[in-house]
Amino acid sequence: MTLTIVAAGRVTQAFICFLLCLSWGSSCPPSCQCTERAGAKAVLCSAQHLEEIPKDIPQDAVFLKLDANSITRIPSNAFRHLSHLEELDLSRNAIEKIDGAAFKGVAAGLRTLDLSSNRIRSIPKEALLMLNAKLRLANNPWHCECTLQEVLWEARLDPDSVQDITCHTAPREEYVGKPLLQVLDAGVNFCSVRQRTTDVAMFITMFGWFAMVIAYVVCYVRHNREDTRKHVEYLKSLPNTQNPAETISTVL
């Protein structure tokens, strides 16, 4: 009888745990709507005045829309638990910063990532190059430099929006306001500019070290000469008991 009660209690606990896990896995954030699209869960959080990414997004979400909010940053591992995610829309927010591991955990299955119409000036290369998703990066105040150029060359960009990746700022004023693709097609290579800058900095550093070594050698020689002169003068001031030249040669 006691064993039966214990067994029944364990079954009840397991069933309650199952219900809680099922409820947690399929829950929906209060500011979002969760629907089914072709048998896949879609989480719709558009235009909800969100300032950060909700932390209770269902794990089985396949489509996630967070567009038209006030999100300013995508922190590391923000979507790590969403292993089924295929489409992610973060357009029309106020995103300024994206961490290098922002999309860690969704790289394998993510097919579309929309970051257009934000406030992104630069983005860590590792945050995007690990993705196989088609990227939309248009209408951001981009600073055109080597990292953005490498993203353009190596990432999968949406061909319909690539012309709208415009240089808001750039190393040279003549590039400002122009599409990045147009600037690169004209033969500009931002990475070579950075390499030349690095080479110049290295040359200046090496020259500085060389100048320090020369200065040290000169000071060392001068110091030794002064010590030798003082020593010779001291010897000359001694009583002249023998030939000064012999005394000096003997001491040396």
UniProtKB/TrEMBL annotation:
TM stretches of this protein: 200-221
UniProt membrane topology term: Single-pass membrane protein
Signal peptide, first to last residue: 1-27
Cellular component GO terms, alphabetical: plasma membrane
UniProt xrefs under InterPro entries: Leu-rich_rpt, Leu-rich_rpt_typical-subtyp, LRR_dom_sf, LRR_TM_domain-containing, LRRNT
Intracellular or extracellular location(s): Membrane
Gene name of the encoded protein: LRRC3
Domain LRRNT: 27-63
Main location: membrane
Family (UniProt): Belongs to the LRRC3 family.
Keywords (A to Z) from UniProt: Leucine-rich repeat, Membrane, Repeat, Signal, Transmembrane, Transmembrane helix
Protein's UniProt name: Leucine-rich repeat-containing protein 3
